[in-house]
Amino acid sequence: MGGIPAANDQIITPNKHAEIIQKEGIKDTWKLKTEAVVIGSGAGGAVVAATLAKAGWKVILIEEGSYFTPAKFTGDEFISQSRLYRDAGFIITEEQTLSILQGKTVGGSTTVNWQTSLYPPDYVTNEWDKRFGWKNYGRQEMDAFVSEVHERIGVHEVPPNLINANNNTLMKGGRALGLHPEVLKNNNRGCIGLGRCGLGCPINAKQSAFLTWIPDAIEAGATVISNMRAQYIKEDGNIKTVVAEFTPDAYEKAPNKIIEKLVIDAQVVIVSAGAIEGPALLQRSGLGNDWVGRNLKVHPTSVNFAIFDDKINMFSGPPQSAVIKDGHNQDNTGYGYWLEVAPFRPTLASSLVPYYGQKQFDVMKKYPNMSGGIVLVRDGADGEANASVKWSLGRRKVYFELTPTDGKNLLKGLKSLAEVQVAAGAKAIVFPFPDVTDPIPVDKNSKFDWILDKSIEPGKVLVGSAHPHGSIQAADSPERGAVDMNFQLYGHKNIFVMDASVYPTGLSVNPQITTMSVNLRAARALAARKAEVLGNK
Fold first, then answer.
1. What is the CATH number of the domain that holds 264?
2. Is the pTM of the predicted complex or chain greater than 0.90?
3. PANTHER family of this UniProt entry (predicted)?
4. Would you state the pLDDT for residue 9?
5. C-alpha–C-alpha distance, residues 375 and 302, integer Å
6. Partner of 69 at 20 to 30 A CA spacing, among 132, 257, 402, 408?
Protein backbone atom coordinates (compact mmCIF):
# COMPACT_ATOMS: atom_id res chain seq x y z
CA MET A 1 0.00 0.00 0.00
CA GLY A 2 1.32 3.43 -0.91
CA GLY A 3 1.82 5.75 2.02
CA ILE A 4 0.26 9.16 2.54
CA PRO A 5 2.88 11.91 2.08
CA ALA A 6 3.85 13.38 5.45
CA ALA A 7 3.22 16.88 4.07
CA ASN A 8 -0.50 16.12 3.88
CA ASP A 9 -0.70 16.29 7.65
CA GLN A 10 -0.51 20.05 7.15
CA ILE A 11 -3.74 20.25 5.13
CA ILE A 12 -6.12 22.42 7.15
CA THR A 13 -9.22 20.29 7.61
CA PRO A 14 -12.21 21.07 9.89
CA ASN A 15 -10.76 19.09 12.80
CA LYS A 16 -7.94 21.67 12.96
CA HIS A 17 -10.25 24.68 13.12
CA ALA A 18 -10.53 24.84 16.91
CA GLU A 19 -6.76 25.05 17.30
CA ILE A 20 -6.51 27.79 14.66
CA ILE A 21 -9.44 29.73 16.15
CA GLN A 22 -7.73 29.78 19.52
CA LYS A 23 -4.29 30.59 18.12
CA GLU A 24 -5.46 33.38 15.79
CA GLY A 25 -8.25 34.73 17.98
CA ILE A 26 -10.82 34.18 15.23
CA LYS A 27 -14.50 34.94 15.87
CA ASP A 28 -16.10 33.70 12.67
CA THR A 29 -13.86 35.03 9.87
CA TRP A 30 -10.23 34.12 9.25
CA LYS A 31 -8.45 36.91 7.37
CA LEU A 32 -5.33 35.96 5.43
CA LYS A 33 -2.91 37.62 3.03
CA THR A 34 -0.89 35.94 0.33
CA GLU A 35 0.66 36.52 -3.07
CA ALA A 36 -1.49 34.00 -4.94
CA VAL A 37 -4.68 32.20 -4.05
CA VAL A 38 -5.64 29.11 -6.05
CA ILE A 39 -9.31 28.09 -6.04
CA GLY A 40 -9.63 24.36 -6.61
CA SER A 41 -7.27 21.42 -6.13
CA GLY A 42 -7.78 19.21 -9.19
CA ALA A 43 -5.64 18.59 -12.26
CA GLY A 44 -5.26 22.34 -12.80
CA GLY A 45 -5.16 23.89 -9.35
CA ALA A 46 -2.88 21.35 -7.69
CA VAL A 47 -0.30 21.66 -10.48
CA VAL A 48 -0.45 25.46 -10.41
CA ALA A 49 -0.11 25.66 -6.62
CA ALA A 50 2.90 23.35 -6.65
CA THR A 51 4.56 25.20 -9.52
CA LEU A 52 4.17 28.67 -8.01
CA ALA A 53 5.16 27.53 -4.52
CA LYS A 54 8.31 25.88 -5.86
CA ALA A 55 9.16 29.17 -7.57
CA GLY A 56 9.05 30.98 -4.24
CA TRP A 57 5.52 32.37 -4.30
CA LYS A 58 3.43 32.56 -1.17
CA VAL A 59 0.41 30.43 -2.09
CA ILE A 60 -2.90 29.54 -0.47
CA LEU A 61 -5.00 26.82 -2.10
CA ILE A 62 -8.64 26.37 -1.10
CA GLU A 63 -10.86 23.41 -1.95
CA GLU A 64 -14.62 23.13 -1.49
CA GLY A 65 -14.55 19.38 -0.91
CA SER A 66 -13.19 17.36 1.98
CA TYR A 67 -9.83 15.64 2.28
CA PHE A 68 -9.98 11.86 2.23
CA THR A 69 -7.42 9.09 2.53
CA PRO A 70 -7.96 5.32 2.09
CA ALA A 71 -9.16 5.12 5.69
CA LYS A 72 -12.33 6.93 4.54
CA PHE A 73 -12.65 5.54 1.02
CA THR A 74 -15.44 3.00 0.87
CA GLY A 75 -17.02 0.63 -1.62
CA ASP A 76 -20.46 2.00 -0.71
CA GLU A 77 -21.51 3.86 -3.85
CA PHE A 78 -24.06 6.11 -2.16
CA ILE A 79 -21.63 7.35 0.47
CA SER A 80 -18.73 7.70 -1.97
CA GLN A 81 -20.72 9.63 -4.55
CA SER A 82 -22.12 11.98 -1.91
CA ARG A 83 -18.69 12.70 -0.45
CA LEU A 84 -16.41 12.63 -3.48
CA TYR A 85 -18.56 13.99 -6.32
CA ARG A 86 -20.28 17.28 -7.01
CA ASP A 87 -24.04 17.01 -6.63
CA ALA A 88 -23.58 13.43 -5.39
CA GLY A 89 -22.44 12.37 -8.85
CA PHE A 90 -25.35 13.79 -10.80
CA ILE A 91 -24.95 17.35 -12.08
CA ILE A 92 -28.18 17.58 -14.06
CA THR A 93 -28.78 20.14 -16.79
CA GLU A 94 -31.81 22.39 -16.58
CA GLU A 95 -33.58 20.53 -19.40
CA GLN A 96 -32.63 17.16 -17.85
CA THR A 97 -30.83 16.34 -21.09
CA LEU A 98 -27.45 15.47 -19.55
CA SER A 99 -25.93 14.24 -16.30
CA ILE A 100 -22.32 15.05 -15.49
CA LEU A 101 -19.86 13.28 -13.18
CA GLN A 102 -17.27 15.56 -11.57
CA GLY A 103 -15.11 15.20 -8.49
CA LYS A 104 -15.43 17.46 -5.44
CA THR A 105 -12.68 16.61 -2.98
CA VAL A 106 -9.03 17.41 -2.32
CA GLY A 107 -7.46 16.33 -5.60
CA GLY A 108 -10.65 17.03 -7.53
CA SER A 109 -11.56 14.58 -10.26
CA THR A 110 -8.04 13.11 -10.18
CA THR A 111 -9.11 11.36 -6.96
CA VAL A 112 -12.00 9.56 -8.65
CA ASN A 113 -11.11 9.35 -12.35
CA TRP A 114 -10.33 6.17 -14.25
CA GLN A 115 -6.65 6.93 -14.91
CA THR A 116 -6.87 7.25 -18.70
CA SER A 117 -3.79 9.18 -19.83
CA LEU A 118 -3.94 10.72 -23.30
CA TYR A 119 -2.96 13.97 -25.07
CA PRO A 120 -4.94 15.39 -28.02
CA PRO A 121 -3.95 14.49 -31.59
CA ASP A 122 -2.36 17.14 -33.77
CA TYR A 123 -5.54 17.92 -35.70
CA VAL A 124 -7.03 19.19 -32.44
CA THR A 125 -4.09 21.38 -31.45
CA ASN A 126 -3.73 22.59 -35.06
CA GLU A 127 -7.32 23.81 -34.87
CA TRP A 128 -6.50 25.61 -31.60
CA ASP A 129 -3.68 27.39 -33.44
CA LYS A 130 -5.60 28.33 -36.58
CA ARG A 131 -8.86 29.43 -34.98
CA PHE A 132 -7.81 30.73 -31.56
CA GLY A 133 -4.10 31.57 -31.62
CA TRP A 134 -2.84 28.71 -29.45
CA LYS A 135 0.80 28.42 -30.58
CA ASN A 136 3.04 25.39 -30.03
CA TYR A 137 0.60 23.13 -28.21
CA GLY A 138 1.13 20.08 -30.43
CA ARG A 139 2.26 16.89 -28.74
CA GLN A 140 5.83 17.31 -29.96
CA GLU A 141 6.13 20.94 -28.81
CA MET A 142 4.58 20.02 -25.46
CA ASP A 143 6.73 16.94 -24.92
CA ALA A 144 8.78 18.35 -22.04
CA PHE A 145 5.66 19.24 -20.06
CA VAL A 146 3.77 16.05 -20.90
CA SER A 147 6.79 13.92 -20.02
CA GLU A 148 7.20 15.72 -16.70
CA VAL A 149 3.54 15.08 -15.90
CA HIS A 150 3.86 11.43 -16.89
CA GLU A 151 6.82 10.99 -14.59
CA ARG A 152 5.20 12.73 -11.63
CA ILE A 153 2.00 10.71 -11.72
CA GLY A 154 3.38 7.36 -12.88
CA VAL A 155 1.95 7.07 -16.40
CA HIS A 156 2.63 3.77 -18.15
CA GLU A 157 0.90 1.28 -20.43
CA VAL A 158 -1.48 -1.11 -18.72
CA PRO A 159 0.22 -4.54 -18.51
CA PRO A 160 -1.52 -7.41 -20.36
CA ASN A 161 -2.40 -9.27 -17.15
CA LEU A 162 -4.52 -6.31 -15.96
CA ILE A 163 -6.65 -5.91 -19.11
CA ASN A 164 -9.98 -7.10 -17.76
CA ALA A 165 -12.92 -8.77 -19.48
CA ASN A 166 -14.76 -5.46 -19.86
CA ASN A 167 -11.91 -3.83 -21.78
CA ASN A 168 -11.20 -7.05 -23.64
CA THR A 169 -14.54 -6.72 -25.40
CA LEU A 170 -13.00 -3.79 -27.28
CA MET A 171 -9.75 -5.63 -27.95
CA LYS A 172 -11.43 -8.83 -29.16
CA GLY A 173 -14.35 -7.29 -31.03
CA GLY A 174 -12.32 -4.47 -32.55
CA ARG A 175 -9.66 -6.80 -33.93
CA ALA A 176 -12.29 -9.15 -35.34
CA LEU A 177 -13.73 -6.23 -37.33
CA GLY A 178 -10.36 -4.99 -38.58
CA LEU A 179 -10.38 -1.94 -36.32
CA HIS A 180 -7.37 -0.81 -34.34
CA PRO A 181 -7.90 -1.14 -30.58
CA GLU A 182 -5.03 0.25 -28.53
CA VAL A 183 -3.83 -0.47 -25.01
CA LEU A 184 -4.21 2.65 -22.88
CA LYS A 185 -1.79 4.27 -20.49
CA ASN A 186 -2.86 4.69 -16.85
CA ASN A 187 -1.34 6.75 -14.02
CA ASN A 188 -0.45 4.58 -11.06
CA ARG A 189 2.33 2.94 -9.12
CA GLY A 190 1.53 -0.55 -7.89
CA CYS A 191 -1.99 -1.04 -9.29
CA ILE A 192 -3.28 -4.57 -8.64
CA GLY A 193 -6.62 -4.12 -10.39
CA LEU A 194 -9.01 -3.68 -7.46
CA GLY A 195 -11.33 -1.64 -9.66
CA ARG A 196 -12.11 0.97 -7.02
CA CYS A 197 -10.75 4.00 -8.92
CA GLY A 198 -14.07 5.82 -9.11
CA LEU A 199 -14.56 5.52 -5.34
CA GLY A 200 -11.01 6.51 -4.38
CA CYS A 201 -8.08 4.12 -4.67
CA PRO A 202 -7.91 2.13 -1.39
CA ILE A 203 -4.17 1.39 -1.70
CA ASN A 204 -2.96 4.77 -3.01
CA ALA A 205 -1.76 3.18 -6.24
CA LYS A 206 -3.49 5.75 -8.46
CA GLN A 207 -1.27 8.81 -8.37
CA SER A 208 -3.97 11.40 -7.79
CA ALA A 209 -3.15 15.04 -7.19
CA PHE A 210 -3.59 14.63 -3.42
CA LEU A 211 -0.64 12.19 -3.47
CA THR A 212 1.57 14.16 -5.86
CA TRP A 213 1.20 17.84 -6.71
CA ILE A 214 -0.55 18.82 -3.47
CA PRO A 215 2.18 17.50 -1.15
CA ASP A 216 4.68 19.08 -3.56
CA ALA A 217 2.95 22.41 -3.00
CA ILE A 218 2.87 22.00 0.78
CA GLU A 219 6.54 21.01 0.96
CA ALA A 220 7.34 24.18 -0.99
CA GLY A 221 5.47 26.29 1.56
CA ALA A 222 1.90 26.47 0.25
CA THR A 223 -1.08 26.46 2.61
CA VAL A 224 -3.88 24.04 1.62
CA ILE A 225 -7.34 24.44 3.16
CA SER A 226 -10.21 22.01 2.54
CA ASN A 227 -13.97 22.48 3.00
CA MET A 228 -13.98 26.10 1.87
CA ARG A 229 -16.13 27.20 -1.07
CA ALA A 230 -15.24 30.40 -2.87
CA GLN A 231 -18.34 32.59 -2.89
CA TYR A 232 -17.01 35.54 -4.86
CA ILE A 233 -13.91 37.43 -5.94
CA LYS A 234 -13.69 41.17 -5.38
CA GLU A 235 -11.25 43.50 -7.14
CA ASP A 236 -9.79 46.53 -5.37
CA GLY A 237 -6.93 47.90 -7.37
CA ASN A 238 -3.92 45.62 -7.22
CA ILE A 239 -5.42 43.54 -4.42
CA LYS A 240 -8.05 40.91 -5.02
CA THR A 241 -10.16 39.47 -2.23
CA VAL A 242 -11.52 35.94 -2.26
CA VAL A 243 -14.37 35.29 0.16
CA ALA A 244 -14.99 31.62 0.97
CA GLU A 245 -17.42 29.88 3.30
CA PHE A 246 -17.25 26.59 5.17
CA THR A 247 -18.75 23.55 3.44
CA PRO A 248 -19.39 20.47 5.59
CA ASP A 249 -18.82 16.87 4.60
CA ALA A 250 -21.99 15.05 3.51
CA TYR A 251 -21.56 12.16 5.94
CA GLU A 252 -19.57 13.53 8.86
CA LYS A 253 -20.70 15.91 11.57
CA ALA A 254 -18.74 19.12 11.58
CA PRO A 255 -16.73 19.93 14.73
CA ASN A 256 -18.39 22.20 17.26
CA LYS A 257 -15.93 24.96 16.49
CA ILE A 258 -15.42 25.82 12.85
CA ILE A 259 -14.06 28.71 10.84
CA GLU A 260 -17.20 29.90 9.08
CA LYS A 261 -15.58 32.25 6.59
CA LEU A 262 -12.24 32.94 4.92
CA VAL A 263 -11.30 36.34 3.54
CA ILE A 264 -8.08 36.12 1.55
CA ASP A 265 -6.35 39.18 0.13
CA ALA A 266 -3.98 38.37 -2.73
CA GLN A 267 -2.25 40.04 -5.62
CA VAL A 268 -3.04 37.13 -7.91
CA VAL A 269 -6.14 34.92 -8.09
CA ILE A 270 -6.12 31.67 -10.05
CA VAL A 271 -9.52 30.12 -10.68
CA SER A 272 -9.15 26.34 -10.96
CA ALA A 273 -12.66 25.45 -9.87
CA GLY A 274 -13.53 23.43 -12.98
CA ALA A 275 -15.66 24.05 -16.04
CA ILE A 276 -18.93 24.03 -14.07
CA GLU A 277 -18.19 25.99 -10.89
CA GLY A 278 -15.46 28.21 -12.37
CA PRO A 279 -17.73 30.21 -14.70
CA ALA A 280 -20.43 30.36 -12.03
CA LEU A 281 -17.91 31.89 -9.60
CA LEU A 282 -16.77 34.49 -12.13
CA GLN A 283 -20.34 35.37 -13.11
CA ARG A 284 -21.57 35.91 -9.56
CA SER A 285 -18.43 37.99 -8.97
CA GLY A 286 -19.27 40.17 -11.98
CA LEU A 287 -16.00 39.29 -13.72
CA GLY A 288 -15.20 38.50 -17.33
CA ASN A 289 -16.80 38.93 -20.74
CA ASP A 290 -19.67 37.10 -22.44
CA TRP A 291 -17.49 34.06 -23.18
CA VAL A 292 -17.48 33.12 -19.51
CA GLY A 293 -19.74 30.08 -19.26
CA ARG A 294 -20.27 29.81 -23.00
CA ASN A 295 -19.34 26.92 -25.32
CA LEU A 296 -19.13 24.35 -22.54
CA LYS A 297 -17.73 21.10 -23.91
CA VAL A 298 -18.67 17.80 -22.25
CA HIS A 299 -17.66 14.96 -24.60
CA PRO A 300 -21.27 13.72 -24.90
CA THR A 301 -21.26 10.07 -23.91
CA SER A 302 -23.73 7.27 -24.33
CA VAL A 303 -23.76 3.63 -23.23
CA ASN A 304 -24.53 0.27 -24.81
CA PHE A 305 -24.81 -2.42 -22.15
CA ALA A 306 -23.86 -5.68 -23.87
CA ILE A 307 -24.96 -8.91 -22.20
CA PHE A 308 -22.65 -11.93 -22.57
CA ASP A 309 -22.88 -15.61 -21.68
CA ASP A 310 -19.65 -15.32 -19.70
CA LYS A 311 -19.03 -13.28 -16.57
CA ILE A 312 -17.68 -9.78 -17.23
CA ASN A 313 -17.76 -8.12 -13.77
CA MET A 314 -17.09 -4.75 -15.36
CA PHE A 315 -16.17 -3.14 -12.02
CA SER A 316 -13.19 -5.49 -11.53
CA GLY A 317 -9.69 -4.54 -12.70
CA PRO A 318 -8.31 -1.23 -14.04
CA PRO A 319 -11.34 0.67 -15.36
CA GLN A 320 -9.98 1.68 -18.77
CA SER A 321 -7.15 -0.17 -20.47
CA ALA A 322 -8.33 -0.14 -24.11
CA VAL A 323 -9.57 2.39 -26.64
CA ILE A 324 -10.71 2.32 -30.27
CA LYS A 325 -10.03 5.58 -32.10
CA ASP A 326 -11.01 4.59 -35.65
CA GLY A 327 -14.01 6.94 -35.55
CA HIS A 328 -12.01 9.87 -34.18
CA ASN A 329 -11.67 11.91 -37.36
CA GLN A 330 -14.82 11.70 -39.48
CA ASP A 331 -14.23 12.81 -43.09
CA ASN A 332 -10.99 14.52 -41.99
CA THR A 333 -12.97 17.13 -40.07
CA GLY A 334 -11.12 16.51 -36.80
CA TYR A 335 -14.44 15.59 -35.20
CA GLY A 336 -15.93 12.21 -34.45
CA TYR A 337 -16.06 9.66 -31.67
CA TRP A 338 -13.99 7.10 -29.81
CA LEU A 339 -14.91 3.92 -27.98
CA GLU A 340 -13.99 2.99 -24.42
CA VAL A 341 -15.64 0.98 -21.66
CA ALA A 342 -16.74 2.10 -18.21
CA PRO A 343 -16.56 0.23 -14.89
CA PHE A 344 -20.14 1.01 -13.93
CA ARG A 345 -20.99 -0.29 -10.49
CA PRO A 346 -24.59 -1.37 -9.80
CA THR A 347 -25.96 2.01 -8.65
CA LEU A 348 -24.65 3.92 -11.66
CA ALA A 349 -25.43 1.09 -14.07
CA SER A 350 -29.06 0.89 -12.91
CA SER A 351 -29.44 4.65 -13.40
CA LEU A 352 -28.29 4.30 -17.02
CA VAL A 353 -30.47 1.36 -17.99
CA PRO A 354 -33.47 3.05 -19.69
CA TYR A 355 -36.11 0.81 -18.09
CA TYR A 356 -38.23 0.99 -14.97
CA GLY A 357 -39.76 -1.38 -12.44
CA GLN A 358 -39.61 -5.10 -13.05
CA LYS A 359 -37.93 -4.74 -16.43
CA GLN A 360 -35.06 -2.77 -14.93
CA PHE A 361 -34.76 -5.31 -12.13
CA ASP A 362 -34.67 -8.22 -14.58
CA VAL A 363 -31.87 -6.60 -16.58
CA MET A 364 -29.85 -5.75 -13.48
CA LYS A 365 -29.98 -9.42 -12.44
CA LYS A 366 -27.70 -9.96 -15.46
CA TYR A 367 -25.27 -7.33 -14.20
CA PRO A 368 -22.31 -9.75 -13.72
CA ASN A 369 -22.53 -10.62 -17.44
CA MET A 370 -22.85 -7.04 -18.68
CA SER A 371 -20.18 -4.89 -20.34
CA GLY A 372 -20.58 -1.13 -20.30
CA GLY A 373 -19.32 0.10 -23.66
CA ILE A 374 -19.27 3.87 -24.12
CA VAL A 375 -19.14 6.25 -27.06
CA LEU A 376 -17.51 9.63 -26.46
CA VAL A 377 -17.96 12.45 -28.97
CA ARG A 378 -15.66 15.39 -29.58
CA ASP A 379 -18.32 18.08 -29.38
CA GLY A 380 -18.24 21.28 -31.40
CA ALA A 381 -18.36 19.87 -34.94
CA ASP A 382 -20.90 22.55 -35.88
CA GLY A 383 -18.63 25.37 -34.77
CA GLU A 384 -19.70 25.76 -31.16
CA ALA A 385 -21.21 23.43 -28.60
CA ASN A 386 -24.79 24.18 -27.58
CA ALA A 387 -23.99 24.04 -23.88
CA SER A 388 -23.36 26.67 -21.22
CA VAL A 389 -23.11 27.50 -17.54
CA LYS A 390 -25.05 30.42 -16.08
CA TRP A 391 -25.35 31.87 -12.60
CA SER A 392 -28.96 32.93 -12.34
CA LEU A 393 -31.30 33.74 -9.46
CA GLY A 394 -28.75 32.60 -6.90
CA ARG A 395 -28.12 29.24 -8.51
CA ARG A 396 -25.66 27.65 -10.92
CA LYS A 397 -27.44 26.33 -14.01
CA VAL A 398 -26.09 24.12 -16.78
CA TYR A 399 -27.67 23.91 -20.22
CA PHE A 400 -27.01 21.33 -22.94
CA GLU A 401 -28.37 20.15 -26.26
CA LEU A 402 -26.71 18.00 -28.90
CA THR A 403 -25.91 19.86 -32.10
CA PRO A 404 -26.81 18.06 -35.38
CA THR A 405 -23.33 16.85 -36.37
CA ASP A 406 -22.34 15.91 -32.83
CA GLY A 407 -25.58 13.92 -32.62
CA LYS A 408 -24.87 12.12 -35.89
CA ASN A 409 -21.39 11.24 -34.65
CA LEU A 410 -22.91 9.87 -31.44
CA LEU A 411 -25.23 7.61 -33.42
CA LYS A 412 -22.37 6.46 -35.66
CA GLY A 413 -20.43 5.62 -32.53
CA LEU A 414 -23.29 3.63 -31.02
CA LYS A 415 -23.59 1.65 -34.26
CA SER A 416 -19.86 0.93 -34.31
CA LEU A 417 -19.88 0.00 -30.62
CA ALA A 418 -22.75 -2.47 -31.14
CA GLU A 419 -20.83 -4.10 -33.97
CA VAL A 420 -17.74 -4.41 -31.78
CA GLN A 421 -19.78 -5.88 -28.93
CA VAL A 422 -21.38 -8.46 -31.22
CA ALA A 423 -17.98 -9.39 -32.66
CA ALA A 424 -16.81 -9.93 -29.07
CA GLY A 425 -19.65 -12.38 -28.44
CA ALA A 426 -22.52 -10.31 -27.01
CA LYS A 427 -25.91 -12.05 -26.95
CA ALA A 428 -28.09 -9.01 -26.27
CA ILE A 429 -27.66 -5.25 -26.05
CA VAL A 430 -29.44 -2.64 -23.94
CA PHE A 431 -29.45 0.51 -26.06
CA PRO A 432 -29.66 4.07 -24.66
CA PHE A 433 -32.93 4.85 -26.43
CA PRO A 434 -35.97 5.15 -24.14
CA ASP A 435 -38.26 3.96 -26.94
CA VAL A 436 -36.29 0.70 -27.30
CA THR A 437 -38.01 -0.92 -24.35
CA ASP A 438 -36.27 -4.30 -24.19
CA PRO A 439 -32.74 -5.68 -24.60
CA ILE A 440 -32.31 -6.61 -28.27
CA PRO A 441 -31.02 -10.15 -28.94
CA VAL A 442 -28.01 -10.01 -31.30
CA ASP A 443 -25.80 -12.38 -33.26
CA LYS A 444 -23.25 -12.23 -36.08
CA ASN A 445 -26.00 -11.49 -38.61
CA SER A 446 -27.39 -8.48 -36.74
CA LYS A 447 -27.46 -5.17 -38.57
CA PHE A 448 -27.45 -1.82 -36.83
CA ASP A 449 -28.12 0.70 -39.59
CA TRP A 450 -31.38 1.54 -37.81
CA ILE A 451 -29.36 3.33 -35.12
CA LEU A 452 -28.36 6.02 -37.62
CA ASP A 453 -32.04 6.92 -38.07
CA LYS A 454 -32.72 7.45 -34.36
CA SER A 455 -33.63 10.92 -33.15
CA ILE A 456 -31.11 13.01 -31.26
CA GLU A 457 -33.75 15.36 -29.89
CA PRO A 458 -33.66 15.92 -26.12
CA GLY A 459 -34.96 12.87 -24.30
CA LYS A 460 -34.66 10.57 -27.31
CA VAL A 461 -31.17 9.30 -26.46
CA LEU A 462 -29.58 9.12 -23.00
CA VAL A 463 -26.44 11.26 -22.75
CA GLY A 464 -23.93 11.65 -19.92
CA SER A 465 -20.52 13.17 -19.35
CA ALA A 466 -17.48 12.89 -17.13
CA HIS A 467 -15.41 15.49 -19.00
CA PRO A 468 -16.76 19.04 -18.59
CA HIS A 469 -14.24 21.47 -20.09
CA GLY A 470 -13.82 24.60 -22.15
CA SER A 471 -16.40 26.95 -20.61
CA ILE A 472 -13.89 29.81 -20.07
CA GLN A 473 -11.96 29.36 -23.27
CA ALA A 474 -8.64 30.96 -24.09
CA ALA A 475 -8.09 32.82 -27.35
CA ASP A 476 -5.87 35.55 -28.75
CA SER A 477 -8.77 38.01 -28.80
CA PRO A 478 -11.63 38.83 -26.41
CA GLU A 479 -13.92 38.42 -29.41
CA ARG A 480 -13.07 34.70 -29.40
CA GLY A 481 -12.44 33.88 -25.77
CA ALA A 482 -12.72 34.73 -22.08
CA VAL A 483 -9.01 34.56 -21.20
CA ASP A 484 -5.89 35.51 -23.13
CA MET A 485 -3.03 33.20 -24.05
CA ASN A 486 -1.51 33.62 -20.58
CA PHE A 487 -4.93 32.47 -19.30
CA GLN A 488 -5.51 35.89 -17.75
CA LEU A 489 -9.15 36.99 -17.70
CA TYR A 490 -9.76 39.65 -20.34
CA GLY A 491 -10.34 43.04 -18.72
CA HIS A 492 -8.94 42.01 -15.33
CA LYS A 493 -5.31 42.14 -14.30
CA ASN A 494 -3.90 39.18 -12.38
CA ILE A 495 -7.04 37.06 -12.39
CA PHE A 496 -6.25 33.84 -14.19
CA VAL A 497 -8.10 30.65 -15.10
CA MET A 498 -5.96 27.52 -15.04
CA ASP A 499 -7.84 24.25 -15.36
CA ALA A 500 -9.84 22.32 -17.98
CA SER A 501 -12.00 25.40 -18.62
CA VAL A 502 -9.50 27.04 -20.98
CA TYR A 503 -9.75 24.74 -24.01
CA PRO A 504 -11.35 26.46 -27.02
CA THR A 505 -12.59 23.20 -28.58
CA GLY A 506 -13.43 19.71 -27.45
CA LEU A 507 -10.28 17.80 -26.51
CA SER A 508 -11.21 14.45 -28.08
CA VAL A 509 -9.37 12.67 -25.26
CA ASN A 510 -9.85 12.20 -21.51
CA PRO A 511 -8.70 15.55 -20.04
CA GLN A 512 -6.34 14.79 -17.13
CA ILE A 513 -2.94 14.77 -18.89
CA THR A 514 -3.74 17.75 -21.10
CA THR A 515 -4.99 19.78 -18.15
CA MET A 516 -1.92 19.05 -16.06
CA SER A 517 0.50 19.68 -18.95
CA VAL A 518 -1.09 22.85 -20.34
CA ASN A 519 -1.44 24.43 -16.91
CA LEU A 520 2.05 23.38 -15.84
CA ARG A 521 3.28 25.39 -18.82
CA ALA A 522 1.04 28.34 -17.96
CA ALA A 523 1.98 28.33 -14.27
CA ARG A 524 5.67 28.12 -15.04
CA ALA A 525 5.38 31.09 -17.39
CA LEU A 526 3.54 33.04 -14.70
CA ALA A 527 6.09 32.09 -12.06
CA ALA A 528 8.90 33.37 -14.28
CA ARG A 529 7.21 36.81 -14.27
CA LYS A 530 6.93 37.00 -10.50
CA ALA A 531 8.63 40.37 -10.05
CA GLU A 532 6.62 41.95 -12.86
CA VAL A 533 3.27 40.47 -11.81
CA LEU A 534 3.65 41.28 -8.11
CA GLY A 535 4.97 44.74 -8.85
CA ASN A 536 8.43 44.18 -7.38
CA LYS A 537 10.33 45.71 -10.24
1. 3.50.50.60
2. yes
3. LONG-CHAIN-ALCOHOL OXIDASE (PTHR46056:SF12)
4. 97
5. 5
6. 257
